[in-house]
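Subject: Predicted fold for Right handed beta helix domain-containing protein, 417 residues

User T.R. writes:
Posting the sequence so we have a shared reference for the thread.
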Amino acid sequence: MRTMIMAAAAAALLTGCGGPGGTEDTDAPASTDAADTNASLEPGDDFAARLQTLLIEAEPGSTITLPRGTFMMTDGLSLDVDGVTISGAGQGETILDFSGQRGSGEGLLVTADDVTLENFTIQETKGDGIKSKDADRIIYRDLTVEWLGEPDEENGAYGVYPVESTDVLVERVTVRGASDAGIYVGQSDRIIVRDSLAEYNVAGIEIENSTNAAVYGNTARHNAGGILVFDLPDLPVMGGNSTAVYDNDILDNNTRNFAPPGNIVAGVPSGTGVIIMANDKVEVSNNRFGDNQTVQILITAYTEPFTDEAYNPLPRNVAIFGNTYGRSGYNPKGILGSFAPLVGGSLPPIVWDGVTRWGDETDTDVNIFIDEPDTVGFINLGLGTYPISVENAAPTMDRPDADRFDPLPAITLEHAE
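User M.O. replies:
I've generated the structure tokens; pasting them so everyone works from the same file.
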């Protein structure tokens, strides 16, 4: 399954000479237009050092243009100047290769507002590919972040990783090989992830502890889990809600789970299309599901012990409608594999754990709304509360008697129009 990826990577490498200087062996300095402070970086010796210098000395509103070629990077890059655009010659045309990275950090860290990252590839970082923190109105566009070779828990955790930000756009981005999530947006508000490809990651796309997100037009394939919408305890921002997942292709997510032990996504069963965990107001609509061996859609409570009194571990106000479903549930993995014998050995496309309370708390009306044809199978495992036990399961195929909550408003980002 990696042959196509390796071939594409080999073709991309042919665009440069493969040495530290890229396509040309010159010592040409960056050329700067004094009128607008834009800079075009030339290939040559000390490329990485000259690039970092430009990032440090950039003026707000300037553009740094990267040349075509493959450039070896030994240290991570950072940008903390507002309003800067970093633009390459295209995905697979400008390649920043971190296979010789000396540290374990991200390839590029952005801690500034109004930044645009576009038209380049980052490969083989020791840590995350590109991380942005407290970076409002950031744009990730026409980028590739990848780890080559077979899935490996030593790969960086996240490919594209905006966190603690407002107005986040991720579009036409490709991520491969992340040992946690390919495209991850966490603790943020007003988010669009669209027209992107996430493949061969543990989780393809993940929206975590965030509000007002739209995930559409993407392809999530060959991951362990396709698209995750989570809310976790003990984080600076909690109360994830209002995420719409629609018009995506969520296919063949049967790659083994290669997350490091102890990672929250290490519990994602291989073969899962969408997981909604402990989140509020989530729509899953008009997606195309196919050949996910465990389940197409899993609705679940947070399963681990926690002490955060403000945390709600239950999923609630979930609406599932208008999707199309191919083959699934024929080889359930993880804990779901233990429940499959109760229902004949396979699982239907939509599975809800049926948890409606935590510990000794009273039952909660979690309002799981499913409006799919009767031919689309559903099961409520009827677990009631955690810790989960197969012996406590009371499975039923009856759909919940729930009301459709008000449709989520469309997300628009003025800085990206």
